[in-house]
Amino acid sequence: MFKMYGELAIYSGTANPELAEEIAEYLGVPLGGRDIIQFPNENLFVRLHSSVRAKDVFVIQPTGNSPVNQNIMELLIMIDTLRRDSAGRITAVVPYFAYGRTDKKDQPRVPITARLMANLITVAGADRFLTVDLHAGQITGFFDIPGDEITAFHLLSDYFVEKNLEDVVIVAPDIGASRRARNFAEKLGAPLAIVEKRRSLDGKKTAMLNLIGEVAGKNAIIFDDEIDTAGTLTQAAHFLVEKGARDIYACATHAILSPPATDRLREAPLKEIVVTNTVRIPPEKRLPNMTILSIAPLLGEVIRRIHLGISVGALFNE
Asked: 304: domain range?
């Protein structure tokens, strides 16, 4: 098969090295050697162990882990390093895209930071981008380079199909999550319920006001794209208990788990929390009722297809 670019090379930042190792193992290639050094003044420095001249390089670095801004700079500096070493093509693999919620100017005198992120990745020297389940789909249009947004939808839905739960209802924890939850409900052949949530003017508090749909006596699966501080999720879980739900499950692609998420989830009436490893989940944040599904085989297969010039979309239509 004709290949437009040279040898496949996989590099990783420090945000989620375990995921990068799994992807490299799937592809049957070793992770590229590099040094990432933080000087006493907090400046970052990257040095490659070998040349990447003319290679097809994929840099794996989610930007959702703490410290977020350091991980972003690490990604940008790695891309710049690869570009200056004459890589044939550089693809920024960002399983979780930071600042994805700041995707529009929804009030006066505020930034559109998601667009800034796209510009930074492009200017640093990336030729393509690859990400998973953006908070807002229009972010793909912020990039001036080609890319792919893939989804963990099938990975998560297949998990629950195999569980074969009875009397299931899929719950969107707010109106914004209703479209994703509707598609999830269709895959499981289950009805949909939506929690009406209102946020305070300062954005710090939310209140559950109403439930659209029926959950009484049913096994409820709360479905969303990410779990950040878990405020919305855990409030929805308690709200569903009040409405007579039986067992309650939480399901999301990204487990950001910003404080006090772990404490909230530990105290919430959740039978199981199902997430993926798009971001690294440290041991202290892993709860006994948490199931972590690996996104590595999916990302590995997409990387393989991009490298060989095979359709990525066809993977999700097979």
From this structure: 8-151+296-316
Total domains, the chain: 2
Mean pLDDT of 92-116: 94
pTM: 0.93
Q: Are 277 and 254 in contact (CB under 8 A)?
A: no
The catalytic residue among 55, 197, 218, 243 is: 197
pLDDT (tens digit per residue) in 259-308? 999 999 999 999 999 999 999 999 999 999 999 999 999 999 999 999 99
Shared domain check, 125 and 208: no
| Cβ-Cβ contacts under 8 Å for 222 (sequence gap 6 or more) | 171, 172, 173, 233, 236, 237, 240, 248, 249, 250, 251
Indicate if 138 and 98 belong to the same structural domain: yes
Judge whether 197 counts as a catalytic residue.
Answer: yes
Task: Give the model confidence (pLDDT) of 135-164 as tens digits.
Answer: 988 999 999 999 999 999 999 999 999 999
Q: Which residue has the tokens 């009436």?
A: 269
CATH for 239: 3.40.50.2020
91 token code pair: 């693809």
Residue 105 within a domain: yes
**Domain match, 131 and 211 both:** no
3-state DSSP of 226-277: EECCCHHHHHHHHHHHHCCCCCEEEEEEEECCCCCHHHHHHHCCCCEEEEEC
Tokens of 46: 């990257």
Examine residue 1 and state whether it is found in any structural domain, yes or no.
Answer: no
Does residue 2 belong to any structural domain of this protein? no
Looking up tokens 């990387």, which residue turns up? Answer: 303
Task: Verify that 147 and 15 share a domain, yes or no.
Answer: yes
